[in-house]
Amino acid sequence: MSLLARYLNTCKGCHGQNFEKRALGRSDVVKDLTKMDIARRLIEYKTTTESDELVMKAQVARYSDAELKAVAQKIGK
Question: Do the Cβ atoms of 28 and 14 come closer than 8 Å?
Fold first, then answer.
């Protein structure tokens, strides 16, 4: 399984199979976001100190900006 596929499978646990859910009942619905917005948010999570974003910080920490942009290209509109 590719790195991208593994990352996307991890995301689906909270965001839904088609990224249709509000993760933890709070997030935006990812399938409604643009590729650019998803990429920006994923990269910003790497340095966040906001307590409600720490779950995402842990999820993106091991990925490069380029890998996160590839995720955004796959799921954004």
Answer: no
Domain ranges in the chain are: 3-75
* Cα 68 from Cα 12, distance rounded (Å): 15
Helix (H) or strand (E) holding 58: helix 54-60
Alpha carbons 61 and 16: distance in angstroms, whole number: 21
> How confident is the model at residue 12, as a pLDDT?
94
Give the CA distances from residue 60 to residues 13, 27, 52, 67, in Å, rounded to whole numbers and listed in that order: 15, 16, 15, 10
Q: In the chain, pLDDT over 90 holds for what percent of residues?
A: 84
Domain 3-75: assigned CATH number = 1.10.760
